[in-house]
Design brief:
By secondary structure, this protein is an alpha+beta fold. The protein has 2 domains: about 110 residues, Lipocalin (Beta Barrel); about 150 residues, TATA-Binding Protein.
Length: about 300
């Protein structure tokens, strides 16, 4: 009887430990903004859209948070070592420098960094083509060892404003590069942006990427699970107004970076992305995407 009581107590203790251990495990989930309560669209996953995830979408990817690496990369762009410069004050969130007419800012939470020209930035030319802006940005990044030869520009943003001659027009353009991880596109805060003036001179760099240092296996949602998330509007959507006659044209797995640290670490999370279009109130067609957390 004594042995039976000891055995029962042991089993009970193990069960309690297992429960406590499970409670202590924090499930890694992305912080994806939900659509506004006033906006809606009839979104469903069509039968023709495949939802079986590739092997690379069955992991959460841990990213390096390497402040020394960030300092070296930012300094490389400016042709200096930041170790030779004093920091600008003390901040809990950022490491900041001023170097030869440039600002440097490194985010402690994730190791992302940016540099910006503090001197006159306006170019003499009245405009610059998207192609020329992207070419100047890529040349700068590759010249400083910050962009793979296979990478290409994914988008170009336009910056307009009041020019020094009093006219309103193009002031700058920003070329965006989106590195892939394990063959998957990465959405959210995971990109490289280079801003050039109308003469093609680089005036700022935003380097919001880090290398993967660990892969954590996760359980991905079934098709039924994804459909439940869509039905309950548990997703992020890019539509900016009420849409009718919505149609989903594609669906694919990607990764999502929210840039938020969890216990000092940042991650890329698997998501399922629906691409669609619908009709706005003015009769025009609006394209949109829907981002769904792909974990169970």
């Amino acid at each position: 009887m004594k042995n039976n009581r000891e055995f029962t107590a042991l089993i009970l203790a193990l069960c309690i430990s297992a429960v406590l251990f499970g409670c202590g495990q924090q499930k890694l989930r992305p912080e994806i903004a939900k659509p506004g309560a006033a906006l809606s669209a009839d979104v469903k996953i069509p039968d023709g859209i495949k939802t079986e995830p590739p092997e690379s979408a069955k992991y959460v990817y841990e990213l390096a948070v390497d402040l020394e690496r960030a300092k070296e990369q930012a300094g490389r762009c400016l042709g200096v070592s930041l170790d030779d410069y004093e920091q600008d004050g003390i901040s809990d969130d950022y490491i900041c420098y001023t170097v030869n007419g440039w600002s440097v800012e490194i985010t402690k939470e994730n190791g992302y960094w940016s540099i910006g020209c503090l001197d006159e930035k306006e170019g003499k030319a009245g405009d610059i083509s998207d192609e020329k802006a992207a070419e100047a940005a890529a040349d700068f990044l590759r010249g400083h060892g910050l962009l793979d030869d296979a990478a290409s520009c994914g988008a170009v943003g336009l910056g307009e404003g009041l020019r020094s001659d009093g006219t309103y027009g193009v002031v700058e353009k920003t070329a965006y590069f989106y590195p892939k991880v394990e063959g998957l596109n990465v959405l959210g805060i995971f990109r490289i942006g280079v801003t050039v003036n109308t003469d093609g001179k680089v005036v700022s760099v935003y380097y919001l990427t880090s290398p993967v240092v660990n892969k954590i296996p996760v359980e991905t949602a079934s098709r039924a699970g994804l459909e439940r998330a869509v039905a309950s509007r548990d997703y992020s959507a890019s539509f900016s107004q009420e849409l009718t006659d919505t149609k989903i044209t594609d669906g694919k797995y990607s990764l999502y970076a929210d840039g938020a640290a969890v216990n000092g670490k940042t991650y890329l999370y698997p998501v399922f992305v629906l691409i669609g279009e619908g009709t706005a109130a003015d009769g025009k067609t609006e394209t949109f995407d829907v981002i769904i957390d792909a974990q169970t």
